[in-house]
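Dock iron/sulfur cluster; give full complex structure.
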Amino acid sequence: MPQPSWKVNEIFYSIQGEGKHTGMPAVFIRLAGCSMNCPFCDTKYAARDGQTLQAEAILKALASWPAKAVIITGGEPSEQDLPALIGVLKDAGYEVHLETNGANDTDVSRADFVCVSPKRYVSPQMLKKAHVIKLVVGQETDLEDLQKYYAYENAHTQIYLQPESNKQENIDLCVKLLKNHPSARLSLQTHKLANIR
Ligand code: SF4
């Protein structure tokens, strides 16, 4: 039987810069490929470039660093065999975090933490599985559209508002929204502010 493999753009050790786990050292596995093509995407390079790796090569790379937390990101991880990758990492003893746009309803039951950041389309099933729903907010964001995500907020799921590209006008818009919706939280891309790779 052929071994599963994944097209990987990069694996690197850094600090989680945004959301609930800001400041946590972690290894990032950036999977290649994303069909969403958002205009504000800051990882467009990951949509095309990547090398095919099997589990052994991925685990070997992870073993170079002391962190036991791994963040699977992209690109869009759910466009590949994500349940198998999560399984490989969990079986090896890692704490697995996932960043996904939530467009594809995928089995993420073994992941320790699921962050769904909806873009043009999101699966309602994935919103229900999210620990965090991270909404990228820009001046052109349809504020009425945001209301529908608040319906998924519950004891299991926290909403974060993240200003698009850390622009001041988007930060101002997030603050205004948060003041009207105080159960949500602000997420800044601190790795960009601190110039951390
Ligand atoms: S869904 Fe995410 S990775 Fe894909 S194009 Fe949009 S911002 Fe980029």
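Observed: The helical segments are 45-48, 55-62, 82-91, 124-129, 143-150, 168-180, 190-193.
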